[in-house]
Structures are given as C-alpha cells and as structure tokens.
Amino acid sequence: MRAPDSEQLLIENLPDEPVGTALCTTRARGQLAGLIAARWPDSRVVCHTLDAYHAQETVAVQGSYGGRLETVCIPDFPLSPADSRNGESTGVVDSAGEGFDLAALPTTAGGESELTRELLREAHNRLRIGGRLLISVDNVSDSWTHDRMRELFPKVTVVTDENPTGGKPRGVVYGGTKDAPLRKQKEYDCEFAFRDRGTLLKAVSRPGVFSHRRIDPGGRSLIEAMAPADGDRVLDLGCGSGVVSLAAAARGEGITVHGVDSNPRAVECTLRGAALNDLSDRVTASLTADALPPAELRGTFDLAVGNPPYFSHQRIAGLFLAAADAALKPGGVVLMVTKQPSWFLESMGERFADVSSEEVRRYHVVRGRKR
C-alpha cells in the first residue's frame, strides 16, 4: 500500500546518513517507520499513533523488525525507545547523548492545528541536542507549518515537492536541528465546566480528543436523553473527554460507568475528569480498537450510549452497535445520537427490539432494547 502524500514525502526526503533512533507518526499503516527500520538495520524506531485501530494495522503490516520497530498507542511521545510505554507531555531531553536522532511527522492541511502545535513541541522535546525534526504537509502553498517550525528552530530548511511522476506537487517538507531545549513549554490541555440537571461538573480535554475544549452538541443531546437508574452499569462508547460518563455517574446512587475509546488521550481525559469530580470509584475507562469493553464486563451493562463520528461511512457506528449488543444484559437499552437517524433505525432493528427515535436539540437519539 502506498503511503499518503505527506508520509511519502518524508520517505523521499529522509537523511542520507544512518539514523540510530527515530520517532515518527503515521497517517496510514506505518510505512515511514517500516522503511526507516528496513533501510538502517542498526536503527531503533518508535511509531506513535493516537488511534488503537491504526496501531493494530501498523503492527500487522510492518511487524517489529526483530524488536527494532515498536508501534505505540499512548497519550504522548515516549522520551526514548527504551521508554516507549511511558510518554509524558512535558518530558524534555537536554543533552546530546539521550533522546531521538530523528523525529518525522507527516501532517495534513486539514488537520487539527492545536494538535500539530503540541506534537511539534513534544517532538522537539524528545530530540537529543543535534537531533533533526522533519515535518511534511500535503499543501504546496503552506505557510502555517513553516511559521510553527520557525518558532522552534533558528534555521528551517524547506523542500517543496517536485513530483517525480510529473503530477501535481504533493506538498512541502520542513526540517530543523535542535541546538537547545525550548525556553518555554506551552500546555495545550484544558479543563472546562458544564452542568447537568443542576450539577456542576468539570471535564478535561486535550488536542486530538473529540470536541476539544467544549461539550459537543450531540453529546449534550445524549446526556439529556439518557436516564440511568440508581445502581445501573453504563457503557460510554467513544467516551472522548468523558462528559457523558461523568454526567451518567453523577445522576444517581451507585451508578458506575465504563468508557471505551480508540484514542489513548480520550481514556486519559476521562480518568482525569473522574478524579476532578471525585468519581474515580465510579468511572473507569479502557483503550480499544473495536469499541468492546473488557471481556469480563461484557453482558453486564444496563445502558450503552454512543455518539459515533460521521467520517467513517458508518463503519465506527457499526462497531458501536456490535459492542453495545455484546455489552448489554438482556433488556438493556442502547442510545445512539445522530443527525441522520435512518441508517440507525434500520441497522438497530436487526439487533435490538423496540427501536425508536426522538428529537433532542436538533439531533435524533435512536433507542433500542436488547432482546
């Protein structure tokens, strides 16, 4: 499989000299990471992704090159290949003998700007002194990414694509060499408050998490439509920043909630939000590529709720419905919020009984009951 344009640009513009340690992200299935590991047999490569499904696909396609390539799905970049399971947002390498030799980030012009800013800062932090950062963008007219690089490095190289196939130029690659740690470390996570039936709750959000810095209108509609009873066990499918989980847990006595998400930052934010609201004993969360909760919890939930994204042509919505079916006990209720209820009414009718839809705040909440 050919890499997306921005990732292919980095592949074509890697340094000539061997790289000992490399940190990279991927927009597909780790093609850049796999090529680095293959080109330099003595290299150690970490491929970082914020999507558990992409992580699974990368491992399946690229393998591990005898342990030299590790694919990780954690909230932040690791400090080094030896610390690839313990990333932290503020970790800084300040010497020539630690950290990565190369960081390479493929990005898209339509990506989330705040996430790109944070990943650039983290990548700079993870480089050793003298290490090199490369970032590509699939927009030949880009200036925004160039400006961000000039905030980090005194000198930035620019390579504008000359498509070898003779087609339309694919984008730009920027490069910078770390000569000192950053003087200022900006934080991009945030806390925001919202009310549910008179209860003030606080949530935590980070770039890359759905609806960063605010409660999504669809999520608000779902919160208004759900009615967990005391003692219920609730599954929050695609928990994001955890606002639905927190509202459900605060609704009544003994309500427990488990959130699942494919983004490790979403899991982190949900757990941090639970701690902020003294709900850590009632709200848990786990990372998953298929929306399923842990095996020991399946078949135990009274209510499953979800706000699936629209960008996947209902693939993720289908995963949510399958997960709800596996997670609910007989008679348990599933709620899905959407602006386009027809697909849900048809698909949920194949799995659940008593399927119906109600309009809440210009959204539709589709309800079903497990047979």
From TrEMBL:
Any single Pfam family the record assigns to this protein: MTS
KW Lipoprotein (keyword) present: no
A GO molecular function held by the record: 16S rRNA (guanine(1207)-N(2))-methyltransferase activity
EC number: 2.1.1.172
Domain Methyltransferase small: 203-365
Keywords: Cytoplasm, Methyltransferase, rRNA processing, S-adenosyl-L-methionine, Transferase
Matching InterPro entries: DNA_methylase_N6_adenine_CS, RsmC/RlmG, SAM-dependent_MTases_sf, Small_mtfrase_dom
Gene3D superfamilies: Vaccinia Virus protein VP39
The protein's enzyme class: transferase
Keyword Methyltransferase in record: yes
Name of the protein this chain belongs to: Ribosomal RNA small subunit methyltransferase C
